[in-house]
Amino acid sequence: MKKATRSKYRQEFSGDHLFDYKDPSSLTRFVSDGGKITPSRISKLSVAQQKQVAAAVKKARSLALLPNGMPAYDTFGRTEAISPVPFEI
User: Fold this and answer.
1) Fold of the domain spanning 24-71
2) Are the beta carbons of 74 and 67 closer than 8 angstroms?
3) Confidence of residue 77 (pLDDT cuts 50, 70, 90)
4) Distance of alpha carbon 89 from alpha carbon 79, whole angstroms
5) Measured distance CA(21)–CA(15) in Å, rounded
6) CA 43 to chain centre
7) I want to staple 60 with a disulfide (CB 3.0 to 4.6 A). Which of 65, 71, 80, 85 is the partner?
8) Predicted TM-score (pTM) above 0.90
């Protein structure tokens, strides 16, 4: 038989709270400075809520509402784009 366990922390969001990808200001709370999504043990979210946040952050990133990572991470090791138009001296 399964034992009932108590949660170590109080959740800040109710179970029916929806995380919206169109609100990047609220989603930045769950993204670190390096661009990684914070784990549920730090953000104090349940497993279902963590999945919702991850999906919302990924959707917001694909729509360019949130950055993919740090500026140094985004541009490191990539060559600059060369214009196909020839230049004149």
Assistant:
1) 30s Ribosomal Protein S18 (4.10.640)
2) yes
3) low
4) 23
5) 18
6) 12
7) 65
8) no
